[in-house]
């Protein structure tokens, strides 16, 4: 299945200021950008045809792949000034780079790359700012079993804030961590069918214009994942992922360590 990655937003919560030209997907986690980790995750499950929806910072993303150095993340032998790689990670990838506009909403970016899906009945999509160890094979299998038109990976609330039950007179009755509420968040990993384009208007939004109506029709499936899931939407979150990687804790690198199958 082809993988559509939305990596054209401004990412203001990740940038130092407006002169910072490094787009969010190119922020580093260990020796590689966030985008590479997400693509490597999909490739591990056999999905190696990528369509990048570019916008802000497009040149930086193109430069990274046009000047890609495999030796940075693979063992190799140096012999007479020649590098012989002992393994490779992107040699079988196909990457389509598409300028989808600086100001385009995610739904509009998706509309602008539809032709590159070549009519495939199903495809994958991702916000390109979240890492997970979710069992993608099982996610896709459950989607097909559901008969839904679209599927979203859903995860428990990640907020560290608390909800407060307060009476009219100001008396606090109860304080409960948001993470303990029986609700689920959009995890940003989608399995979609071509049917979604029938609902997606020009300039539209994938969640508001497609997922909401499908949910009302009972045709949106949610795969519940309680394993590892962490966004890199801010400097703090990206720094936490980078620090975790530095200390050898990177459960999202399912291509390195076999992971137990998670229930849904």
Automatic annotation (TrEMBL):
<keyword id="KW-0808">Transferase</keyword>
<dbReference type="InterPro" id="IPR013446">
    <property type="entry name" value="G1P_cyt_trans-like"/>
</dbReference>
<keyword id="KW-0548">Nucleotidyltransferase</keyword>
<dbReference type="InterPro" id="IPR029044">
    <property type="entry name" value="Nucleotide-diphossugar_trans"/>
</dbReference>
<protein>
    <submittedName>
        <fullName>Glucose-1-phosphate cytidylyltransferase</fullName>
    </submittedName>
</protein>
<dbReference type="GO" id="GO:0016779">
    <property type="term" value="F:nucleotidyltransferase activity"/>
</dbReference>
């Amino acid at each position: 299945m082809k993988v559509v990655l939305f990596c054209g937003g401004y990412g203001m919560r990740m940038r130092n200021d407006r002169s910072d030209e490094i787009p969010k997907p190119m922020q580093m986690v260990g020796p590689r950008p966030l985008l590479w980790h997400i693509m490597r995750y999909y490739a591990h499950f056999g999905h190696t045809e990528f369509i990048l929806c570019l916008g802000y910072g497009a040149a930086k993303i193109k430069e990274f792949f046009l000047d890609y150095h495999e030796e940075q993340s693979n063992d190799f032998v140096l012999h007479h000034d020649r590098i012989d790689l002992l393994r490779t990670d992107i040699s079988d990838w196909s990457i389509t780079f598409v300028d989808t506009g600086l100001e385009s909403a995610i739904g509009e970016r998706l509309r602008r790359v539809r032709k590159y899906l070549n009519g495939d009945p199903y495809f994958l999509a991702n916000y390109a700012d979240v890492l997970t160890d979710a069992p993608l094979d099982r996610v896709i299998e459950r989607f097909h079993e559901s008969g839904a038109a679209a599927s979203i990976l859903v995860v428990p609330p990640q907020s560290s804030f608390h909800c407060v039950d307060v009476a009219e007179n100001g008396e606090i009755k109860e304080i409960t961590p948001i993470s303990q509420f029986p609700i689920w968040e959009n995890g940003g990993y989608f399995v979609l069918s071509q049917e979604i384009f029938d609902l997606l208007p020009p300039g539209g939004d994938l969640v508001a214009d497609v997922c909401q109506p499908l949910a009302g029709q009972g045709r949106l499936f949610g795969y519940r994942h309680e394993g590892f899931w962490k966004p890199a939407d801010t400097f703090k979150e990206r720094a936490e992922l980078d620090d975790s990687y530095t200390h050898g804790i990177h459960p999202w690198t399912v291509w390195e360590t076999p992971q137990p199958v998670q229930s849904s």
